[in-house]
Every structure is written in C-alpha cells, then in structure tokens.
C-alpha cells in the first residue's frame, strides 16, 4: 500500500479573536464613507471638482453678503433667504452626488457583499440617505455660519447683538435641514432606480425642474384656492411654502407669504412630511427588492 504523499502546511491562518463591532459600526462606516464620497474625499481629483466648486460658489456668495453688511450695515439677505436663493445649486448637487452614492453600487453588483455582513437591507439605504442629507445641509449651513461669524464680530450691540443674530441663524439652519431632507429623499429614490448615473442624474433634474411650470399654471387659475395650493405642484415650491408658513418674515418680509399660501400652511407642512415619509418607504422597499435578487 503506497504511503500518502499529501502534506499539510501551516501558513499562519488564525481565527479572528478581536472585537466584533456589529451593526452600529457598520452603519456608521457606511454613512461616513457616503459623506466622504459626496465631497470627493479619498477619491481622484476629478471627483472633487464639482462638489467643491459648488461649495466654493456658496461660500463666495456668503462672503460677499457678509462684506456688504459689514461695510453698509444693512442685511441684504437673511439666513433663510440665503438657503432659498442657493436652492438651484442644491438640485444639481443632488443630481451629481446621489448617483455616485447608489447607482455605482447597483451597476457594479456589490450589494450582495454589503448584505453578507451584519447590515440589514434598510440600513444601507438609510446610511446613504443620511450621508446625502448631511452633505446638503453642510452645503447650505456652512455659508450661513460664515455669515453669522461676520455679523457677530461686527455687531455694535455686544452680546445682545450676538444673541439676536443667533436667533436668526437657528431658523435658517433648520430651514436648510428641510431643504436637505426633502431633496435627499427624492433624489436618492430616483437614483436607486437605475445603475446608470447619467440616467439617474437626468431623472433627478427632470423631477425638480420640469415640475416648476405646474406651479406657474396653477397660480394663474381663476380659483383663489387653487392659487394658494399651487406650490404643491413642485418639491422646490413646496419647501418654500413650508418656509413661508414656519418662518414668516425671516423668509418673506411684510407678510407677503400669507398672500401666496393663504391659510394652507398646515397642509403644506403635512404634505412635506408625507412626501419625505413616502420617499423613504419606497427607498426601503426598493432595496428589499434589489437584495432579494
């Protein structure tokens, strides 16, 4: 009987005996990676051009407004109005960043690798959504903070002036968060439907821009009720209407916002909440379907 010729070599493989961080740390790592991806951090120089160009634009505008206020002593634009004015840049930022966060993973087929870890399918979608919403909030909030610092250091009223300025800043940051949550929810849902980034970007821009004429058409209808509900026709107008209802003169001075939305402020607020909730629910359903394939 021939002797066996096989040999077992010990090449040093050992069992992992370190800490197992679990679901929370996986979620946090995915969220942080998504936030870095939104601004091109850890990626090529080409990936950094657009997000930092947009960030540079909003910071330059904020610096200009701060300089004018410092020299003339006049508030050219409130913090909430700044978020409103820069909203058109948010649309294109979402159109570029949202496909980078999810469409690339769909196209490359790496989702089974994500879901082989202790990461529920919904956590992947929520981590990406949180990363995009945070990036959008930073895009609108960082320039507001720059404006606040400029106003706080040049106020003539001492600590009272700084406190009053802070009272104007906080609603502006909350309004920026509203923009971020609504736009991130819609944009990420659209991007999750296709692995082709160009199609995803086009779909996002189309939803935000092509719905704007609906508001114009409804606002010239003979019915006053239809006019006051016209802003329901577009996500951008919807956010602006919620801002008019919640912020008042901080966004639209002189009570002009009441003429546009009438007494339908609570309706706009409810629709905004339902819109975000619906988009998040559809996003979670989408990833349950993708992961099941």
General description of the model:
By secondary structure, the chain is mainly alpha-helical. It has one domain (23-292). The protein is 74% helix and 0% strand. It has helices at 23-38, 45-72, 79-85, 87-108, 111-115, 121-152, 159-191, 197-210, 212-219, 224-228, 235-247, 256-261, 265-292. Helix 4 crosses helix 7 and helix 4 packs antiparallel against helix 8. It is globular, with a radius of gyration of 24 Å.
> Span from first to last CA?
51 Å
Fraction of residues in helix: over 70%
Largest beta-sheet characterization = none
Strand content: under 5%
Low-confidence stretches: none
Q: What is the residue-averaged pLDDT?
A: 86
What structural keywords apply?
13 helices; mainly alpha; globular; 293 residues
Structure summarized in a few sentences:
With 293 residues, the protein is mainly alpha-helical. The protein is 74% helix and 0% strand.
């Amino acid at each position: 009987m021939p002797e066996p010729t096989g040999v077992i070599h010990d090449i040093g493989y050992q069992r992992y005996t370190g800490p197992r961080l679990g679901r929370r740390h996986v979620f946090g790592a995915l969220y942080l990676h998504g936030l870095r991806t939104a601004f091109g951090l850890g990626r090529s120089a080409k990936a950094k051009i657009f997000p930092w160009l947009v960030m540079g634009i909003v910071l330059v505008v904020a610096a200009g407004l701060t300089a004018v206020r410092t020299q003339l002593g006049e508030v050219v634009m409130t913090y909430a109005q700044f978020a409103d004015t820069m909203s058109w840049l948010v649309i294109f930022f979402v159109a570029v960043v949202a496909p980078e966060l999810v469409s690339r993973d769909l196209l490359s087929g790496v989702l089974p690798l994500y879901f082989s870890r202790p990461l529920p399918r919904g956590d992947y979608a929520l981590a990406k959504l949180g990363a995009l919403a945070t990036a959008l909030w930073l895009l609108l909030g960082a320039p507001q903070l720059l404006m606040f610092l400029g106003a706080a250091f040049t106020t003539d009223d001492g600590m009272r002036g700084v406190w009053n300025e802070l009272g104007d800043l906080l609603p502006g940051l909350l309004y920026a968060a509203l923009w971020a949550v609504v736009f991130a929810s819609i944009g990420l849902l659209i991007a999750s439907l296709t692995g082709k980034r160009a199609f995803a970007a086009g779909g996002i821009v189309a939803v935000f821009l092509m719905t704007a004429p609906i508001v114009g058409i409804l606002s010239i209808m003979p019915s006053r009720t239809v006019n006051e509900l016209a802003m329901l026709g577009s996500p951008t107008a919807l956010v602006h209407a919620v801002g008019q209802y919640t912020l008042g003169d901080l966004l639209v001075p002189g009570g002009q916002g009441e003429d546009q939305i009438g007494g339908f402020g609570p309706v706009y607020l409810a629709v905004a909440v339902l819109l975000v909730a619906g988009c998040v629910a559809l996003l979670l359903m989408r990833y349950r379907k993708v992961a099941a394939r």
